[in-house]
């Protein structure tokens, strides 16, 4: 049998998944991704260590490869991942500093200076992106300003999935989707922007030449083969930023489809052939960037999502975890059972899901999360339901922004990502938005999307369209209760009041405790 390998460097785990040519999962391996507080004096300084990333990916690949027969062939592979996080390498290809990861707040000064000297309008008109505190260029500048001796050793910067590609093949490479969140990529010319490089003080020679997703990078080296169990010479093709690679597996590669990617981050995406980088689109907090599908662009709104449910589980779900362990059940099914005991509206409790700031349609990295409406009748069931409803109000806010920016109406939402396994969440998303939410039978959309790109690259599929038609499998569709939609419409208006009401106090708290 012939198989394709999709490798996914995620923020919670690193995975390697083998698929047959019909998109069926054959075997897998995984390894937890560890975000480390680098300095006890600065608990918000978060990093990934390069050796941990490579060891984890190597072990995950080895696990997946060990489960197939000796006569089976892995004919191609591609790597996808969380993007934006980058590692500096010296002339020997060795890391000189860890990945400053997306949870780290050390780059506030660089972000503020960029906003003052470059600004939103110029950034968006060239890059299609809104600046975030974690935008890659600010990590470059932080190292340049705070570790100048180390910075002088830097010969190459690589995004996290490009670092894995380098360890597999010995080749430096990147693609359009991973170049985009650096804030140094020109979406019109699909090249590095000389103007923004000059403004940032970053040398172009330190960055690999961007290319389309699906392009050939190189072959697995002897050293990488020994470490991973992959056959030496296995061709590696360019993957890309995880959410955009995931759109490939979902078939969101042509205009008219609205896709919801529900994971650590949630993104509402629609493909387009006619990108716009005007003030109206920027003011909606949208991003317009190159798609993983060659020749396409996409428009999206996004913000953190499932990480807040993980926080609730870890900090307030101890009883549910014990019950899950004792009954050998999934902890999320227990937590959702608890949420269902609270009525729609969560007994008057509302949740602002800004644990990592606000992204769209409001751009504010200093906004913080909040529970509002607590009283002496509030129960845990109300809190967990409020988290779900708050995330879905945020989803509706993003959906409306993408509809306005694109001029299109979403009659149905296709949903992918780990969150789709949470049926309570999906049903509530349909009830809040008033739109059917259609899931797909995909084990892991990002890894499958990477495998599909590898398959097109190696020639087992003639086109992405042919590949999608072969592998896509419909899942369950969740239809809205329109009576609940009407009730949630009133609550959504209250939700939209939360951010402006809390903005001032949240900024003061952020400045005191998060910087």
Give structural notes.
The protein is of the alpha+beta class and 515 residues long. Helices cover 42% and strands 22% of the residues. The protein has 19 helices and 24 strands. It has a seven-stranded mixed beta sheet with strand order 18-19-17-16-22-23-24. A six-stranded mixed beta sheet has the order 3-2-1-6-15-14, sandwiched between helices. α12 (306-316) packs antiparallel against α15 (380-406) and α13 (318-327) packs across α14 (331-340). The longest helix is centred in the C-terminal third of the chain and has 32 residues, at 482-513. The chain starts with a strand and ends with a helix. The mean pLDDT is 96.
Strand order of the largest sheet: 18-19-17-16-22-23-24
**Low-confidence spans: pLDDT under 50, at least 5 residues?**
none
Which structural class do you get from the secondary structure elements? alpha+beta
- Outline: globular
Beta content comes to: 15-25%
Determine the mean pLDDT. Answer: 96
Report the C-alpha radius of gyration, rounded: 22 Å
Helix content: 40-55%
User: Main β-sheet: number of strands, strand sense, barrel status?
Assistant: 7 strands, mixed
What is the number of beta strands? 24
Amino-to-carboxy terminus distance: 53 Å
Number of helices: 19
């Amino acid at each position: 049998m012939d198989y394709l390998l999709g490798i996914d460097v995620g923020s919670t785990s690193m995975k390697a998944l083998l698929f047959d040519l019909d998109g069926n999962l054959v075997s897998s391996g995984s390894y937890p991704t560890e975000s480390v507080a680098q300095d006890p004096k600065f608990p918000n300084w978060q990093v990934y260590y390069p050796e941990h990333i490579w060891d984890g990916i190597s072990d995950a690949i080895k696990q997946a490869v060990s489960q197939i027969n000796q006569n089976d062939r892995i004919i191609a592979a591609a790597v996808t991942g969380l993007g934006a996080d980058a590692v500096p390498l010296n002339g020997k290809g060795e890391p000189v500093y860890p990945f400053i990861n997306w949870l780290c707040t050390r780059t506030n000064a660089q972000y503020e200076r960029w906003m003052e000297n470059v600004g939103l309008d110029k950034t968006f008109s060239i890059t299609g992106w809104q600046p975030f505190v974690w935008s890659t260029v600010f990590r470059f500048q932080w190292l340049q300003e705070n570790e100048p001796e180390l910075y002088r050793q830097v010969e190459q910067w690589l995004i996290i999935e490009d670092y894995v590609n380098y360890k597999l093949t010995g080749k430096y490479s990147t693609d359009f989707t991973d170049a985009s969140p650096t804030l140094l990529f020109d979406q019109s010319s699909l090249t590095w922007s000389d103007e923004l490089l000059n403004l940032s003080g970053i040398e172009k020679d330190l960055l690999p030449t961007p290319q389309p997703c699906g392009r050939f990078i190189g072959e697995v080296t002897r050293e990488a083969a020994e470490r991973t169990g992959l056959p030496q010479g296995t061709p590696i093709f360019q993957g890309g930023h995880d959410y955009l690679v995931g759109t490939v597996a979902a078939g969101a590669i042509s205009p008219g489809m609205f896709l919801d990617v529900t994971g650590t981050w949630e993104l509402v995406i629609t493909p387009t052939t006619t990108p716009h980088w005007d003030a109206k689109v920027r003011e909606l907090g949208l991003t317009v960037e190159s798609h993983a599908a060659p020749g396409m662009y996409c428009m999206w709104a996004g913000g953190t999502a499932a990480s807040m449910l993980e926080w609730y589980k870890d900090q307030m779900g101890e009883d549910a975890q014990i019950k899950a362990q004792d009954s050998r059940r999934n902890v999320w099914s227990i937590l959702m059972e608890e949420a269902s005991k609270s009525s729609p509206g969560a007994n008057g409790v509302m949740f602002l899901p800004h644990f990592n700031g606000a992204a769209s349609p409001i751009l504010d990295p200093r906004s913080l999360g909040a529970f509002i409406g607590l009283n002496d009748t509030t129960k845990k069931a109300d809190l967990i339901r409020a988290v779900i409803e708050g995330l879905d109000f945020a989803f509706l806010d993003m959906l409306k922004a993408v509809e306005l920016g694109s001029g299109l109406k979403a009659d149905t939402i296709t949903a992918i990502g780990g969150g789709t396994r949470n049926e309570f969440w999906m049903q509530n998303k349909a009830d809040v938005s008033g739109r059917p939410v259609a899931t797909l039978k995909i084990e892991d959309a990002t890894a499958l999307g990477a495998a599909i790109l590898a398959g097109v690259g190696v020639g087992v599929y003639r086109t992405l369209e042919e590949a999608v038609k072969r592998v896509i499998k419909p899942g369950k569709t969740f239809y809205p209760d329109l009576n609940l939609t009407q009730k949630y419409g009133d609550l959504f208006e209250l939700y939209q009041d939360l951010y402006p009401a809390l903005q001032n106090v949240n900024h003061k708290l952020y400045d005191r405790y998060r910087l």
